[in-house]
TrEMBL record:
Database matches in Pfam families: ABC_tran (PF00005)
CDD domains assigned: ABC_NrtD_SsuB_transporters
GO molecular function: ATP binding; ATP hydrolysis activity
Keywords, alphabetical: ATP-binding, Nucleotide-binding, Transport
Keyword Transport: yes
Keyword Transport: yes
Name this polypeptide is given: NitT/TauT family transport system ATP-binding protein
All copies of domain ABC transporter, residue ranges: 2-237
Gene source species: Kribbella kalugense
Length: 265
């Protein structure tokens, strides 16, 4: 679904040039959930922006669904750290926004889109809140609305840049469970950036570890814990902790890092 071949990104600034990414080779399969982790500045957001078509790589190529990425695509959605809802619009009309921007190009009639918006709001537990304004909702609820808005175009690919980082721990756990459920139901391909190693492990089919200056792929780790996973369950907690420990060591650049399948669980 997503293919990056030999991707490099150099930014030219006033202080000289910065190599944000170098030699990135990554293939994300359709329906796969990949998380990106790495220290601040290792190029995670840059990688998402390249896949989204918001940036053109300095070298290498980026493909989505077998086509070179030349700009933003309708079937690729981007979700940010903050929900960025329009404050004067109701929950329902915020969720409907992408359809209005498309002016119905997606093929459904307005009533059908409205039904879809209600369905999505129900999926994230917001039925009954359709007429509320964003400021009447908690941060977690606002981010759920933003999630519904991202899903309105039935994206093939969802790019998520630390979408839960501004939330409290419990809401964050709940939303990561919901996102797994949505992913299993809709089989959307997801690339998700996070600073939380545990969150990366709980969500991912594979975790990509990036190292900084220049941003390179240090390792790709398969996570084979059965879904749905939750940090609220002891069994998952132990497995997640074992893999997280190793990822932590990888990120700290410790020399003696055992492969995940040798880590006692
Ligand atoms: N538009 C830009 N112009 C110049 N330099 C940039 C630009 N965008 C990113 N960079 C640089 O590229 C590098 C990677 O930035 P990026 O935001 O992708 O890192 P990140 O891993 O997402 O960081 P964080 O975890 O702090 O969000 C950094 O050194 C950053 O300063």
């Amino acid at each position: 679904m997503i293919r990056l071949n030999g991707v490099g990104q150099v930014f030219d600034g006033r202080e000289g040039s910065v190599t944000a990414l170098e030699e990135i080779d990554l293939h994300v399969r359709g329906g796969e959930f990949v998380t990106l982790i790495g220290r601040s500045g290792c190029g995670k957001s840059t990688l998402l922006r390249l896949i989204a078509g918001l940036l053109v790589p300095t070298s290498g190529s980026v493909q989505v669904a077998g086509e070179p990425v030349t700009g933003p695509r309708r079937d690729v959605s981007f979700m940010f750290q903050r929900p960025a809802l329009l404050p004067w619009r109701s929950v329902l009309s915020n969720v409907m926004l992408p359809v209005e921007i498309d002016k119905g190009r997606g093929g459904r009639g307005k009533a059908e889109y409205r039904d879809r918006a209600h369905q999505l709001l129900e999926l994230v537990g917001l039925q009954g809140f359709e007429r509320r304004l964003p400021h009447e909702l908690s941060g977690g609820m606002q981010q759920r609305v933003s999630l519904c808005r991202s899903l309105m175009r039935d994206p093939q690919v969802m790019l998520m840049d630390e979408p839960f980082s501004a939330l409290d721990a419990l809401t964050r756990t709940e939303l990561s469970e919901e996102l797994q459920r949505i992913k299993m139901e809709l089989s959307t391909t997801i690339v998700f950036v996070t600073h939380s190693i545990e969150e990366a492990v709980v969500l991912a089919d594979r975790v990509v570890v990036l190292t900084p200056r220049p941003g390179r792929m240090r390792e790709v780790v398969d996570i084979d814990i059965p879904r749905p996973r939750s940090l609220g369950q002891d069994a998952h907690l132990t497995e997640v902790a074992a893999i997280s420990g190793r990822l932590h060591a990888l990120l700290s650049e410790k020399a003696d890092v055992r492969p995940v399948d040798e880590v006692p669980r």
